[in-house]
Amino acid sequence: MVRRALLPPLNPARAFEATGRLLSISKAADELCVTPAAVSRQVRALESYLGTPLFVRVHGGLELTPAGARYLSDLIPLFETLREATLAVTNSSPGRNTLRIRSPATFAVRWLIPRLASFHQLHKDIDVQLMTSFAPLDFEREDIDAGIQLGDGRWPGMRTLQLVRNELVPVASPAVRLTHKKQLATQTLLHSMARPDDWMLWLRAAGLRNVSPTHGMKYETSLLAYQAAIEGHGVAIAQKALIEKELADQTLVAPLGQTLDRGDYTYYFAWPTGKPQSSALRAFRDWLATLVAT
């Protein structure tokens, strides 16, 4: 009996990672310097290898299937680690700077990565190495220059820059009929295990005591919970800043309208106070400050 290889075909996996991250065949083709047809073939080859669809077409665009979203959330940190290892070997060109940043996966995919191209356009001499994890930042133990973290922004030994407002709002597919908050008692609630208290906080603020804040489907990351909501599997509690695209194209709707602003408890860019700041770090921080000021 012939066993299948333990690793997936790497070129198709690379094509899928770029397409899933950018949610665009043409943008992935530009990034990989190949034709859109080649990217499509590679993605289909990976779907055939895995035996499951990774994308669906909606409103003329692409959306990840639940399997695709789960696979992408696993592949992104692996490819970033591969890029980092390659840069560590090859990054000997004079005049280039390397900036190592860590972020929660959902924030990286939903907010940071779509904006990174503008930073690269401004600072072509700076290589950004992006890693993902929702573990607390630890600049003493980690080989990173800065990171993004969810919290109140008051962490010893760190300076911070607030990035987005943390507004919690229930969202669902337009196919889910939801017109009043009391109907949540009959809906499947979708939870992120990375943020287990979000439903409890929103339900408490909405005055709903007959809805369990813990029942429903639970997913490792918000990225997966949002995708499950897009697929019509229930109602997710979302951070509004991370689903702007889906609300704009109406693959997700916020039928109840009521939001809960967590105030200072949100995402921050953080860097250590006890280490010299490189020119790359200063450039990245200033770029972020410009983004959040607009």
Automatic annotation (TrEMBL):
GO function terms (MF aspect): DNA-binding transcription factor activity; sequence-specific DNA binding
Keyword terms, alphabetized: DNA-binding, Transcription, Transcription regulation
Domain HTH lysR-type residue range list: 8-65
Annotated Pfam families: HTH_1, LysR_substrate
GO biological process assignments: DNA-templated transcription
Domain of life: Bacteria
InterPro entries, sorted: LysR-type_TF_proteobact-type, LysR_HTH_N, LysR_subst-bd, WH-like_DNA-bd_sf, WH_DNA-bd_sf
Coiled coil region boundaries: none
Family, similarity comment: Belongs to the LysR transcriptional regulatory family.
Entry protein name: LysR family transcriptional regulator
Annotated organism of origin: Cupriavidus cauae
